[in-house]
Amino acid sequence: MNKILLVGCGHMGSALLSSWIKKTSFKFTVIDPINYSRLKKKFPKKIKFYKSFNQIKSVRDFDIIIFAIKPQVANKVIKAYSNLVKKNILLISIIAGKQINFLQKSIAYSNQIVRVMPNMPALVERGISCLVCSKSTSINNKKISQNLFEKVGTAIWLKKESDLDKITAISGSGPAYYFLFIYYLEMAAYDIGLSKKIAKELVYKTAYGSLKLLEKDSSEAKDLKNKIAVKGGTTEAAIKVFEKNNSFKNIIHKAIKAAYSKSKKLSK
């Protein structure tokens, strides 16, 4: 049984842990000074929670350490583990923007490293995680990493670490984009007089049904849009507003570039 130390258990860490404890036989220990009390109430007693790594007898007892912390605190947190891990330990990082060489420079014996960009639908086991590893990472450790993230959805290996910044802007941040559009669609439904209950059901089920249709139909998203937006119809009237002067397209491209640029900035 692999012993896993999860460092940081906020929204993403909790989402991953919820599935991992149900679907794996790994033994988990969690360090989180901020969410400590909430986590102890939420998760089974078999998981050990600590406020600080100083409360753990030895970090060398663990086979895997997963860092699920914010990039803003990464330097301070990682520094605490610089000389505490055992040789050939598997280090998994889901720290946005922090490159593999950041861990290699910060932690001794860090030759087995997998960097991952998951996303929030992992909470309902519908996430998509993109992985990249250091050159010396063993096949076995790659399999362990893939197995972990397949428990929460789909796992995709990338050839270039630099692609993770692009992934961050699309699938990492992507759920928030959809939630924003859904929220605005709800607001628009209220504005034209629909009740909150009906508006919510209409918007949510339309979103869900549209994605299921896109999955099963061989057509591209653009083609399905055109099938619905028939000439002279109500959908076409709305689509014309979205597409006037390419305004909707330009906003999306500008937003993605902003997220991509921020991810690259965090990696420096």
Average the pLDDT over all residues and give the rounded result: 92
Oligomer: single chain
Strand order of the largest sheet: 3-2-1-4-5-6-7-8
Quickly count the helices. Answer: 11
Q: What profile does the largest beta sheet have? A: 8 strands, mixed
- H/E element string? EHEHEEHEHEEHEHHHHHH
Key terms:
268 residues; elongated; 11 helices; 49% helix; alpha/beta; 8 strands; 8-stranded mixed beta sheet; 15% strand
Describe, in short, the structure shown.
With 268 residues, the chain is α/β, with parallel strands linked by helices.
What does this structure look like?
With about 270 residues, this protein is an alpha/beta fold. The chain has 11 helices and 8 strands. It has helices at about 10-25, 35-40, 75-80, 100-105, 140-150, 165-170, 175-190, 195-215, 220-230, 235-245, 245-265, and strands at about 5, 25-30, 50, 65, 90-95, 110-115, 125-135, 155. Helix 4 links the parallel strand 5 and strand 6 (about 110-115). Helix 6 (about 165-170) crosses helix 11 and helix 7 crosses helix 8 (about 195-215). The two termini are about 35 Å apart.
List the helices and strands and how they pair.
Elements lengths: L2 E5 L3 H13 L3 E5 L4 H7 L5 E3 L13 E4 L6 H6 L10 E4 L6 H7 L5 E6 L9 E7 L5 H12 L2 E5 L5 H10 L1 H18 L4 H21 L4 H8 L5 H10 L3 H20 L2
